[in-house]
Specification:
The complex is a heterodimer of chains A (about 110) and B (about 120). Chain A is mainly β. Chain A is about 0% helix and about 55% strand. In chain A, the strands form 2 sheets. In chain A, strands 2, 4, 5, 9, 10 and 11 form a 6-stranded mixed sheet that branches. By secondary structure, chain B is mainly beta. Chain B has 1 helix and 11 strands. In chain B, strands 2, 4, 5, 6, 9, 10 and 11 form a 7-stranded mixed sheet that branches. In chain B, a hairpin with a 2-residue loop joins strand 7 and strand 8. The longest helix of chain B is centred in the C-terminal third of the chain and has 4 residues. Classes of the chains: A mainly beta (about 110), B mainly beta (about 120).
Chain lengths: ~110, ~120
Amino acid sequence: ELKVEQNPLFLSMQEGKNYTIYCNYSTTSDRLYWYRQDPGKSLESLFVLLSNGAVKQEGRLMASLDTKARLSTLHITAAVHDLSATYFCAVAGNQFYFGTGTSLTVIP
Amino acid sequence: ETGVTQTPRHLVMGMTNKKSLKCEQHLGHNAMYWYKQSAKKPLELMFVYSLEERVENNSVPSRFSPECPNSSHLFLHLHTLQPEDSALYLCASSQDRTTVISGNTIYFGEGSWLTVV
């Protein structure tokens, strides 16, 4: 079974700082997804990465995929409070395999 | 608003009760899913329906019984649950089953918080 590991599980960062969330997975896949979940809310699709070297950016978030390393990163630039949420990566095999999530808190 | 609506949002039930969770999608999708989200654990895929036919059942206990009467509606019937079944149950939909392979995403509802007492 494909395993997906995220780290860190919890992240507390100050506004204006940069940080990266890592997503490692155990078997070959070239389809990786990032989602955001606010407390009590649904999972919202952020990025879909479909090939090695894919990079996508939306606002202060940038996601990349290295299929050879089986690694995706979600980079946060100049964090703001509104980015506080839980972020999940998911890898497509014969189903979606989700990581445990990274709970991000941005402190003013 | 994701186009996937779940009811009820919160449910408290005793271990001997029978209840159901309902999901409706307004996106014209052909595949629907039930996921379980427990604290500190990855999302667990429970069931997959494609064109109203169950295509995947990930070793889910029989006390959880899905039903998909049409491509827009999905139910999860619950009976004789255990306290460890308390979790957030998420419904999702996608254009079709192969969406996972083709790269399009799936859309989640806001979930039903279940507490078993």
